[in-house]
Amino acid sequence: MSSPSACRADNFTVCMETITAWAWGPLSVWTVLAFLYNKPYRFVLQLVVSLGQLYGDVLYFYTEYRDGFSHSEMGHPLYFWFYFVFMNALWIIIPSLLILDAWRHLSTAQALSDRARGPRGRSKGE
After folding, report:
1. Residue, of 28 and 15, whose pLDDT is higher
2. How far is the C-alpha of 40 from the C-alpha of 94, rounded, in Å?
3. How many degrees, rounded to 5, is the angle at CA 104 between CA 87 and CA 32?
4. Predicted confidence band of residue 21 (pLDDT cuts 50, 70, 90)
């Protein structure tokens, strides 16, 4: 485990947590509201937030790997395997599933729009 001063000194952690607090937090709230009120842009927001979460966690895993897991007790059943691997893996699995869900919904919406416009990209009423 790392000390609070080590976390403050880790440039990556400071940058990612700042982005998370100031960008992904409000964007996540907006996404929830978009789903609650059935807004047409809800799946775009879901895709953006999920890609951001996935990207941040992949960077977190990779930088920790490159640092030789210096912020955790390598191989410890609780601190490494449960807290570090399992709990962070959820932040890869869940956003990945949400990315696929958004992809499916956006692709379906685009296919319906394309079909309504006809073979040459014009709406059928033109």
Report:
1. 28
2. 22
3. 55
4. confident
DSSP state string for the chain: ---HHHHHH-HHHHHHHHHIIIIIHHHHHHHHHHHHTT-TTHHHHHHHHHHHHHHHHHHHHHHHHHTTSTTS-TT-IIIIIIIIIIHHHHHHHHHHHHHHHHHHHHHHHHHHHHHHH-TTSS-TT-
Q: How far apart are CA 42 and CA 36, in angstroms?
A: 9
d(CA 114, CA 72): 51
- Token pair of 77, please? 């059943």
